């Protein structure tokens, strides 16, 4: 199990998700994220047009009494070379209760952006309502969010890359 955890997290280190967005953690829950049956794999590229509707997220592991919080962020806003608006919150879901912040599909403008799904296992069962604290989706901070709501380290994470589609790239 320990080896599986380190193998799973390795692409997150290579993609600088661990380090820039998350602290080192051990994956303990299996999370599958898919868009129209196409599974999200760490570091793979997806076209923005293929991720326009919200993904299906399946969680395996944990018990039936577990409650989870999922955030989807883009740490590369407005562009990877100067991401001064990072992190942009694209989605926030409380499993298995409700969507707290609705899904906003990726629209990368400059360069290749990383879109990161981060899963936390909650210690308490209540829905964490963050809407009053979020005037905009920009400058969200996953680490600070986890600390403020006593979520601890993530239990799973996965990311994909996307860049602006040009007519030539769509063919």
From TrEMBL:
Name the InterPro entries on file.
PEBP (IPR008914), PEBP-like_sf (IPR036610), PEBP_euk (IPR035810), Phosphatidylethanolamine-bd_CS (IPR001858)
Q: Which Pfam families match?
A: PBP
PROSITE patterns according to UniProt: PBP
Q: Which domain of life is it from?
A: Eukaryota
Protein name per the record:
Terminal flower 1
- What family classification does the UniProt entry report for this protein? Belongs to the phosphatidylethanolamine-binding protein family.
């Amino acid at each position: 199990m320990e080896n599986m955890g380190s193998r799973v997290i390795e692409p997150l280190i290579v993609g600088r998700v661990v380090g820039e967005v998350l602290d080192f953690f051990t994956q303990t829950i299996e999370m599958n994220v898919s868009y129209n049956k196409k599974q999200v794999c760490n570091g793979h590229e997806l076209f923005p047009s293929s991720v326009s509707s919200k993904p299906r997220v399946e969680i395996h592991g944990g018990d039936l009494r577990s409650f989870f919080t999922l955030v989807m962020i883009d740490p590369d806003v407005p562009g990877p070379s100067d991401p001064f608006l990072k992190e942009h919150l694209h989605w926030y879901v409380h499993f298995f209760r409700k969507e707290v912040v609705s899904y906003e599909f990726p629209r990368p403008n400059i360069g290749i952006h990383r879109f990161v799904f981060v899963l936390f296992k909650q210690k308490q069962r209540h829905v964490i309502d963050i809407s009053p604290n979020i005037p905009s989706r920009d400058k969200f901070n996953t680490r600070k969010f986890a600390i403020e709501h006593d979520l601890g380290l993530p239990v799973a994470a996965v990311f994909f890359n996307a860049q602006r589609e040009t007519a030539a790239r769509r063919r």
